[in-house]
Design goal:
eight-stranded mixed sheet; 9 helices; elongated
């Protein structure tokens, strides 16, 4: 991954420099070309061809960059965020019971203008509640001893509900799983962001609130709407998150992702054969 990042940054720097220089040159050329043509026709012709060459060069570099790295950018950013994020965060809520924790989360969402549906069933799974407000969507599920299969099953139900039942194509969603104790394989999915649609305008983040430890597992270092929703309603704190709510240790799955990303290559990614979860 590091080698690909170096090549990407070099090409991006070249693209940016060439684009800025080309734009400045083009603006100046348009302004002074009539005067140069009157003074020296040969120089005017040379500058005309230089301008055309610059435009073509910019277009070529733009095409090469976005065709090679356009789709991989968000994937690499997500992987780096998961690796560099704190292992977990600490809630400011005092509730130690799963049901009472779910209740205060839903109550706060309702106070902030969300439309609330409680005790609903989606794709044969029971949710404690769903909250919606314009392009913000919040699902709360109470699960005892949550594991990987629970997270994936509830995530699939949320995707179905948003895209099929509610026909949403844009927005930020959160799946909050409140549990007494989360298994390691469930925690490993907590920083995963699920983008939907060709332009990835609909995104779903996962938050796991563990009542036994007071920990909240989610992607907390990426400044998105989902980060704000989770901090405000799951942790009951403001942004930026204060140091006292940030866990100091990394979790084993973050090291596993870091090791796995060492084998990352563009060919496998484009063929759909590389996953970090």
């Amino acid at each position: 991954m590091n080698e690909i990042r170096v090549k990407q940054k070099r090409l991006y720097k070249l693209m940016k420099t060439l684009t800025v220089f080309g734009a400045i040159f083009l603006v100046i050329y348009i302004g002074v070309s009539p005067m140069i043509a009157e003074i020296n026709q040969t120089l005017s012709t040379v500058l005309y061809y230089v301008c055309n060459v610059l435009v073509v060069a910019v277009l070529v570099v733009l095409f090469v960059y976005y065709s090679k790295y356009g789709k991989v950018e968000s994937f690499l950013n997500n992987a780096e965020n998961e690796i560099n994020d704190a292992g977990y965060y600490l809630t400011s809520r005092e509730e130690k019971n799963v049901d009472s924790y779910c209740k205060v989360v839903m109550d706060d969402l309702q106070k902030c203008g969300f439309y609330i549906d409680k005790s609903l069933e989606i794709s044969d799974l029971d949710f404690y509640g769903r909250a919606m407000k314009r392009k913000e969507f919040f699902y709360v599920a109470d699960v005892i001893n949550a594991d990987r299969n629970d997270v994936l099953a509830y995530l699939e139900s949320v995707i179905y509900d948003l895209t099929m039942n509610n026909v949403k194509r844009k927005g930020d969603g959160v799946l909050c799983i409140v549990t007494d104790k989360a298994a390691d394989d469930a925690v490993a999915l907590s920083k995963m962001i699920t983008p939907l649609g060709k332009k990835e305008k609909l995104k779903i983040a996962i938050a796991i609130a563990e009542t036994d430890t007071g920990r909240v597992y989610f992607l907390g270092n990426d400044k998105t709407k989902a980060q704000q929703l989770i901090a405000n309603f799951v942790m009951n704190c403001d942004l930026p998150i204060k140091d006292k709510y940030i866990g100091k240790e990394k979790l084993p799955f973050q090291e596993e992702i870091k090791d796995k990303m060492k084998d990352f290559n563009l060919k496998d990614f484009r063929n759909g054969n590389f996953y970090i979860h």
